[in-house]
Write a structure and sequence with these properties.
- This protein is an alpha/beta fold.
- The chain contains five helices and seven strands.
- It has one domain (10-169).
- Helix content is 35%, strand content 23%.
- A seven-stranded mixed sheet has the order 3-2-1-4-5-6-7.
- α2 runs parallel beside α3 and α4 (111-122) runs parallel beside α5.
- The termini are far apart.
């Protein structure tokens, strides 16, 4: 085992131990050359992890295989700063979303990421919809009707199950900067 992998496994397990008793908010941002995860426990504080990896499939794979703490998050926000996330293959995205077994609220902030998430969820067979984000109660975003139409099979299957959910349409306003005029 390489030293970097060993230290990374230690880092993952120590972070998981530190936060395992908390449910917290996570903001995951996919950038062109990195993925940034900001974790905020509900009782305050903040931690951020940044992994440098140019290809999106490797970013997703790294998160799936090396961060067990993601199963403790109850609010997840996804964003993308890369030119366009690869939405053609939903399989890596479904593996990624399966990590978040405690998520009750999913916030999807930008149109590119909304399309990726909707496309991935639409690929699920009706009997599989409860296995991805099983605790999900609310999806929040400023969704175009096209995205809602793509997600409709997932939403319908969840409404027919023991885990119904709702979609909230919101508009995010920019946060005013402090100390600047």
């Amino acid at each position: 085992m390489s030293p970097s992998l060993t230290s990374h496994n230690y880092l993952s397990s120590s972070i998981a131990q530190k936060f395992s008793s908390y449910l917290f908010f996570a903001h995951v941002e996919f950038r062109e050359n990195a993925v940034v995860i900001s974790l905020t426990p509900w009782d305050g504080g903040k931690s951020a992890l940044q992994f440098y990896c140019a290809r999106l499939d490797r970013q997703l794979s790294m998160l799936v295989h090396r961060l067990p703490l993601l199963s403790h998050i109850d609010t997840l926000e996804l964003a993308s700063c890369s030119p366009k996330p690869d939405e053609r293959d939903p399989t890596p995205w479904l593996k990624f979303l399966r990590l978040f077994s405690a998520v009750e609220t999913l916030r999807v902030g930008d149109e590119r990421m909304q399309f990726v998430v909707a496309t991935a969820l639409a690929e699920l067979a009706p009997e599989e919809t409860e296995k991805v984000l099983p605790m999900l109660q609310t999806i929040v975003g400023r969704f175009e009707s096209e995205v809602i139409d793509i997600m409709r099979p997932f939403l319908h299957a969840r409404s027919e199950s023991d885990h119904p959910m709702k979609v909230m349409q919101v508009i995010w306003l920019p946060v005013p900067s402090r100390g600047r005029s």
